[in-house]
Amino acid sequence: xxxxxxxxxxxxxxxxxxxxxxxxxxxxxxxxxxxxxxxxxxxxxxxxxxxxxxxxxxxxxxxxxxxxxxxxxxxxxxxxxxxxxxxxxxxxxxxxxxxxxxxxxxxxxxxxxxxxxxxxxxxxxxxxxxxxxxxxxxxxxxxxxxxxxxxxxxxxxxxxxxxxxxxxxxxxxxxxxxxxxxxxxxxxxxxxxxxxxxxxxxxxxxxxxxxxxxxxxxxxxxxxxxxxxxxxxxxxxxxxxxxxxxxxxxxxxxxxxxxxxxxxxxxxxxxxxxxxxxxxxxxxxxx
Length: 287
Prior knowledge:
Elements: E1 7-12, E2 19-23, E3 37-45, E4 51-65, H1 69-80, E5 84-91, E6 94-103, E7 105-110, E8 114-124, E9 139-142, E10 162-164, E11 168-173, E12 176-181, E13 189-191, E14 194-195, E15 202-212, E16 217-223, E17 229-236, E18 241-248, E19 255-261, E20 269-279
Antiparallel strand pairs: 1-2, 1-5, 3-4, 4-8, 5-6, 6-9, 7-8, 10-13, 11-12, 12-20, 13-19, 14-19, 15-18, 15-20, 16-17, 16-19
C-alpha cells in the first residue's frame, strides 16, 4: 500500500482517447484525503462462529482540483452516460492502478476552491483472479506496477502479465522466466499495457537476471491511447543480478510496458526473476 496520492488520471473506457489528469487535494477541503482508497473485507460466519473471508470491497473517494473546461466536459460525458472508467495515480512511493472498468460518480463541491468529488466502488474476490498467464487484481496499490499481475508465477510459457513476440521461445517455472531468441527477429517479451499517462514522471525498469548467454536489452515501451508505440527506452544488461534502467515518460503517453530481448543473435538466451516497473529508482518490491 502507498501512503499518499499526488495525481490521478481517469480514462473513459468507451472513448479511450478521453483521458483527464487531475491533482488530488490532500487536505483543506471537506472529504479530502492524502490517499482516498479503502479496502474492506467481506466475511461469512459459519456454524462454529468462525469468519471466512470471501470478497473485498474497494472504495476510491477523493477530492480533486477541478480541471479545464475541456476536462470537465469529458468527466460530465462519462458520468451522464453512465460509462465505465479506469483510474491510475502515483506518489513518490508507488502506483495506484484501478484496472477494473467501473462506473464513476462525480459531484462539484464548493469550498475554499471549486473541487470535484470522485467516487468509485467495486467488489472483487480476494487475491489474484483469472487463469495464467493473465491472473491479475482489479485494483493494485504498491511499488511495482507489474504486480497488478501475479508476476511470481504464470503459465508454462510466460509469467502472468507477459506475452512473447514472434521469433522468441519462452518457458516459465517457479517465477523464473526463460527467453530464447529462436530466429533473427528483433522482438520483445513484453508485459501487458498498463494505463499510466503521467508525462514527465521518472520511471525505472528492473529485473534480477539469473543467467544470460549474451547481452540482453531491457527497458520500457511507451504507447499512446490508440496503442501505437511512441518510443522504447532500453539499456544493455551487464552480467547477472539486479539490473535497472531509468527514463522519463514522454509526451502523449497513455500506457507503459516492460520489455526485454535476450540478445542480437539466434540462440541467445536470458533467464530472470522479479521484473519491476517502479518510481523513485526502486529495484526491490513487496507483495
